[in-house]
Amino acid sequence: MGLTASGKTALGIKIAKQFNGEIISADSRQVYRGLDIGSAKVTHEEMDGVPHHLLDVVDAGEKFDVFEFQRRAFDAIDDILRRGKLPIIVGGTGLYSRSIVENYAFKGEATGCRYHTCQVCLMPPREILRPLVGKRIDERLQHGMIEETRELLARGVDAKWLQSLGLDYYWNVELIQGRVTLTQYKENLTTKTMQFAKRQRTWFKREKNTVFLTDPKTFYQDTMKLISLFLT
Questions:
Q1: Nearest Cα to 185, choosing from 197, 198, 174?
Q2: In a domain, 158, yes or no
Q3: Burial call 188-219: b when 16+ CB within 10 Å, e when fewer
Q4: Closest CA to 33 of 59, 2, 4, 63
Q5: C-alpha radius of gyration, the chain, whole number
Q6: Which residues span the domain enclosing 46?
Q7: What 3-state class would DSSP assign to 21?
Q8: Which terminal CB of the chain, N or C, has fewer other CB atoms within 10 Å?
Q9: Spatial CB neighbours of 19, under 8 Å, sequence gap ≥ 6
Q10: Which of helix, strand or coil describes residue 146?
Q11: Exposure pattern of 45-84 as b/e (b: 16+ CB <10 Å)?
Q12: N-terminal to C-terminal alpha carbon distance within the chain
């Protein structure tokens, strides 16, 4: 798990290749088909042969919540384990990952762990994260994020539903409908993304039995060591 734009996706793929793993996405927007660029969904090329689960499981606008995520994630984890591989949960939706790690029953208190886990959280400081956020916004725009949102609207996806997802899709609609300029769009999206990252920090700091990593230069080496120790 980790903050938005902290490098979770790329790190997860590297770790999966080293430990014969498969990735389960814990991202509340990447479950939707067609929401690719704006949700930073991993591409087929970026997967580099590593199987990914819980991507593109429902159509845009359909209901999907943590209950459904947990059910599908448990099925995926059990299947991966049966095949002798390592399940790796990667994502920034804290409630989704916590529902697995703490085996939420959703009828009161958590029921305790269903699996033995090693939990790592990427938490680069604000001064490192902000340039990464700006760079990612520019890259998404270059890759066609606004065009992707136009296509979703043209296919009948409700603008209010898209905006309810927040961040990129909220401001994409604002730009498309002419309520902000491109300069305002970038400024607002950067500010809102950093505010979102601040909320993520608050949430993740409450996680139990978690190792927090703050230096992107050593994310890979530190995670490799932690998982190696966990598996021995």
A1: 174
A2: yes
A3: ebbebbbebbeebbeebeebeebeebeebeeb
A4: 59
A5: 18
A6: 8-231
A7: strand
A8: C
A9: 86, 88, 227, 231
A10: helix
A11: eeeeebebbbbebeebeeebebeebbebbbebbeebeeee
A12: 22
Say if 1 falls within a structural domain.
Answer: no
Domain membership flag for residue 125: yes
- Taking only the tens of pLDDT, the chain with its 232 residues reads 999 999 999 999 999 999 999 999 999 999 999 999 999 999 999 999 999 999 999 999 999 999 999 999 999 999 999 999 999 999 999 999 999 999 988 766 656 789 999 999 999 999 999 999 999 999 999 999 999 999 999 999 999 999 999 999 999 999 999 999 999 999 999 999 999 999 999 999 999 999 999 999 999 999 999 999 999 9
Q: Which two tokens stand for residue 169?
A: 């899709």
Residue 2 domain flag: no
Task: Enter the tokens of residue 188.
Answer: 């607002």
Q: Residue 203 sits in a domain of what CATH number? A: 3.40.50.300
Tokens at 206, concatenated: 């409450």
